[in-house]
Amino acid sequence: MDSLGALRAVEYGYLDERRQVYLDHTGAGLPARAQVRAHADRIAAGCYGNPHSVSPASEASGELVERARARVLAHFRADPAEYAVVFTANATGACRLVGEAYPFGPDNRLVLTLDNHNSVNGLREYARGRGAGTVYVPLEAPGLGIDATAMDAVLTGARPQAGTETGARGPGLLAYPAQSNFSGVQHSLDWVTRARAAGWDVLLDAAAYVPTNVLDLGRFSPDFVAVSWYKVFGYPTGIGCLLARREALTRLRRPWFSGGTIHVVSAQGLWHHMADGEAAFEDGTVNYLSIPDIEFGLDWITGIGVQSIHRHVTSLTAELLAGLRGLRHGDGSPLVRIYGPPDTTGRGGTVALNLLGADGRVIDERIVGRDSAARGISLRTGCFCNPGTGEVAFAIDRDVLGGAVRTATGTIDDYLGRLGLPSGGAVRVSLGLSSNAADVSAFLAFAAQTYRDRSPDPAGLSPRLVC
Q1: Is-above-0.85 flag for pTM?
Q2: Is 461 a member of any domain?
Q3: Lowest-confidence range among 44-53, 85-94, 271-280, 294-303?
Q4: In this structure, are 44 and 20 located in the same domain?
Q5: What is the set of active-site residues?
Q6: How do strand 109-113 and strand 133-137 relate by DSSP bridges?
């Protein structure tokens, strides 16, 4: 048994003990038993209080929080003089901090790629509210990578394609994912360097990327990076962070203040002065009992080796892709349609697909979700909060989208009917540190045994849930 196989048996043994096949690592990583024990041991052995004080209990908490902050910077090879770590609830919270405080206005723009999680897409509402235009950079089918020509045109100030919402010609904020949470495509980090050289600020969504890849902020220097720690090592949940260049932080203007974010404030005088650095962005009391678990989690994956995790996941992804391509109905027609790159070149451990019936039609993803759950398989179905990539993957025309706006009385299925879609999304299988070859084999066997030479009827399914 290799080292990761032994680790699976000991630290993630609850999977096999409960006969669970976990294939949703893009949704959340899984915790090692050692992480949970370390948390319990620390809490049981110490006395920790609100760090907004100078008491012994407060100082004990504050010391551990600052150690975690330093450990995050070290993990990303970030210079503490250049980067700050702002703890948030998750990557979504990190994106919101940027969106609400970024100086959008008529003289700048927000640039998004069509491949973005809704936590990033939502920034356009902040931009719109302050008169800034939003431009979407398209993707190239079938690989679902960023259209490099279009991106270059936007970053160098060329007019965006007809039909996009436009604002002023000046630069602004570019936001894109290092790795797609839909297709697993890994977009070039060179866009960070090229955008910043052209005068743009850059928000990099690294939530799906960092669990199995090294992000070196000494080499690539985005202004803002959003991370969710539970996606990296499973525990604790409810903790993320915004890594931000200190110079970029000084240009943000928060629309409110709260406990912990101000240096001085007057109630009667109606004035306040924000705190410096990270403190101005960490609302109220941080989760001081769980933030120290980040240090243990980072030590845990560093001990295993991020490159070792990367190679492990890449190898399993190659097995999965090869197995999916080999699944056929009795007449030789494919049982699976894969979205994104056909192999592991330029992709992470996330694979989006649809299963096809014997008649060639897409099997409703709700059927797959129901049937896989009955087999003890945890995966994800739907659009994965990434509508842009889904629109490209399913080849939905812009004009069709414009005319298919959901009405107050319509259902999701009515909306899909207007789009001419047989299904509301895809099936996502994603691999991680605790995955093994048996998990891949289990899914392939499930797909073959359940759907080969069959065309399931979607009648009687529960209402569709689409984000």
Answers
A1: yes
A2: no
A3: 271-280
A4: no
A5: 385
A6: parallel
